[in-house]
Structure formats: C-alpha cells, structure tokens
Amino acid sequence: MNPSNTRPTITELRLAAFKAHRGARFALGPLTLIAGGGGSGKSSVLEALAVLARLAGGEELGGAFDGVVRGGAPACAPRGPRPDTRRRGFRIGCTVEGPAGTVRLDVAVQTEPELRVVGERLTGGGRILLATALRDPARHAVQAAWHTAGLTRVTRAPLPADRLATALLPLRVAGTTDGQRLVLAAAEQVVIALRAVFPVDPQPWRMREPARLGDGLLRGGCDNLSAVLYRTQDECRTRHAALVGAARVACAGPVDGLVAHPEGHDSVLAAVDRGPLGATPLDRLGDSELRFLALALVLLTGPGVLEMDQSAEVPPALRAMTVLADGLDSGLDRRQTAELLALAARAARRGHVRLLGTVYDADPFEDAESVSVIRLRPADEGGARVPQQRGDAERGASAVTARRDRE
Questions:
Q1: Which of 2, 38, 196, 271 is the most exposed place for a label (fewest CB within 10 A)?
Q2: Domain range list for the chain
Q3: Peptide bond preceding 113: is omega within 30 degrees of 0, i.e. cis?
Q4: Burial class of residue 144 in the structure, from the number of CB atoms within 10 Å of its CB (0-12 exposed, 13-18 middle, 19+ buried)
Q5: What is the mean pLDDT of residues 351-378?
Q6: What's the pLDDT tens digit per position in 256-275?
Q7: Is the Cα dihedral 322, 328, 334, 337 positive or negative?
Q8: CB contact set of 194 (below 8 Å; sequence gap of 6+)
C-alpha cells in the first residue's frame, strides 16, 4: 500500500500490435504531449486509452470502440494475419499508481474470426491478481482465476468474453480474505483511474448554436458550451473568473466577462462581454477562440462540470481526471496553446487534472513547465511507431521505451 498517493493515476500506456504500434510504452506524466506528423500514430495512443476507459466503465467490447476508433475494433489489429493462423488481434495495457501501489492491467483482444477478449492480466505487489484465458473457442466466455489466499489460493470461474474482467471483479469477489481484499483494491484503483478519462474534441460549428437550458454537463464535443457557461457563472464563480482571465489572454479584443442569458423559454446562448463595446455572442467568435474556451473550461472546472461516468462512491478529493485532447493545437496559435498548457500545469499541480494531448509542433513547449514531450518517429523496419520522450518524465524516474513486449 502507498497511502501517500491517494489519487489513482495512469502513469503508463502500453500498445502491442495496436494499429502501427509494436511493443510501445508511453510514460504519462501530469502534462504529456505526443508530437508527430500526420500518420505517425499520435491519435492511436489516445484512442487506445479511451477504449480502456470505456471498458472500465462496463461497456461491451464492440460498443467500446464506437465513436472512438474509425472502423471499430477490426481497424485496431495490424493488417494481415499471423503466418500460422487466421486469427488477428491486438494488446493494450496500462499502469495505475495509487493507494494499492503499482498495478498493471494488460488485455489481449481477438478481432477475427470473432471479436472477444482472449486474455487479461491484473498484477500488483509482485503477483498475478487476476488472469483470464480463452480455453474453449466455441464458448463466449473466458476462464478467470483470481488471487484468494484463503483456504484455496485461487478462485476460478467463467466470465464473459465481451467485458473487462477487472471491471467485473467488485461484483464477483466477496473481500473476505486478505488476498481477496488485495484483488479488490487493485481492481478498483484501475477502474477509478480509467473511468476518470475524459476525451474532449471541441466542435466550433456546433458550439455556435443555442444550447438547451439545464444541459449543464459539458459533453466531449462541447456543443452545449453555452448552457455550461450559464451554470458556471453562478455556481462556480471562482473558476468562472479564472476562465475569464484566460480568455483575456487568448481572445482578440477586450474581454470583461463571459455571460450567458436565456433565449426564449428553453435555450441559452453565451457571449463575450466587451465592456463599452457590448457583447459578442459565441456564434460570432472564430474557431480558435471557441476551441480555446472549451478546452480551458475543461481544464479549469474538472469532473463536476463534465459529462463523466465516474464512480459515485469515490469522493472528488480522491479523483484525478485525465483529459484526452487529440489535436490540442489544431486551429490555435502559439499564444493560445501556451496559455492552455499554463492552465493545465496549474491544474496538474493541484493533482486533480492531468492532460494527454497530441500536437503537430511541440518545439515551442518542450521547455515549458511540467511538460513532457513524446515524439513519434516514422515507422521503423518492423513497422513500429518508435516514441522518444523529452521533458520532465525523462528527467524523472521513468522514460518512454519502445521495445518488443516479451511478457
């Protein structure tokens, strides 16, 4: 146990035979940027983590890829089957640090001839806490074995092959022995960290439309930004004031405030208060200003204002949200991106918000406070995307490695 680290946080992502990645390991710090050109595999890293997050939330395997990976699960497996079999698949995994120490989750998924989980392993404290394996291809189940340390060392039972077994353990393990309690603590730590992942992809053209009153939890596409601003201007005044301060830096022209007023009986449209110059409704702002406002709102407000399916029994003080922002610098100038990273660094210092984003050009931010940069090189001779990391994570205890996964 590590009681000093009370917030479960994802510190590493592993991709083995996932799209163009082969045995790649990505060390994730509080503020991590993945840089590279088009087709370098940046988005694949975020997609893999988003899929793990959905599985941890209890989603069925096929549905976990909907809206996350174009082409679904089959698009994640490398092209062409293995020479000795017609089966295709991939492996993804993560490491989560928290009160239960260092816990690793690794999942093997078969995409052909049938989509299913064929193996899963949860490890912590130097022992295997959970292991599943596909014993009978004709059955839609895997054989699971988890650590018990009671009258019997291991408990065995079949589990569905279309769900994450780790997410099912709290429903199957009684917690009556020390071994069972260790398994539950590790599983809950992983599930809490993954369910706190929030992919955000602001869509400016949708943010210009009036939002429905009462729609106060920001969605990943940020189309209901006006309704959320209407809520935060009264309920979250301190954080709303911080958002206004950030807008002064990143938006053109004077900014005295961000206001939202109802339009009719059931809709609201926010505006930028320009002081003596009047108000500029969101539908008149540029794409970069809208993207900035949405991303800044996510970083400043946290889970309480976001549409997230977090564990209700976990107090907010014990949560650490991981924001996934694909194309963080898309449509933004360097000044706007730098201000976003400053906000992210400020949030990371409080320990409640972590950011994993992709950018095309990381040069201006490589020496910024708390920023760890992972650069993806073109595919090597074996077809793998080889990551190189610089920044705080390299100077610390962990660094990204790219090697064949021999485990």
A1: 38
A2: 9-196+308-395, 207-297
A3: yes
A4: buried
A5: 85
A6: 999 999 988 899 999 999 99
A7: negative
A8: 10, 52, 53, 55, 56, 57, 94, 96
- Rounded CA-CA distance 319/352 in Å is 6
Coil/strand/helix, residue 404: coil
Residue located via tokens 């479960």: 8
Q: What separation in angstroms does the CA of 350 have from each of 7, 30, 154, 229, 345?
A: 11, 10, 40, 23, 9
Give whichever of 54-68, 84-98, 293-307, 389-403 has the largest mean pLDDT: 54-68
User: What are the φ/ψ torsions at residue 271 (nearest 5 degrees)?
Assistant: -150, 160
Residues 6 or more apart whose CB falls under 8 angstroms from that of 108 comprise 89, 90, 91, 117, 118, 119, 120
Nearest CA-CA partner of 209 in 323, 140, 285, 132: 285
Q: Is 219 left (phi over 0), alpha (psi -120 to 50) or beta?
A: beta
Distance CA 321, CA 156 (A): 34
The whole model's pTM is what?
A: 0.89
Tokens, residue 230: 């209407």
CA 92, CA 16: separation in Å to the nearest integer?
6
**pLDDT digits over 9-34, tens only?**
999 999 998 998 999 999 999 999 99
Q: What is the mean pLDDT of the chain?
A: 87
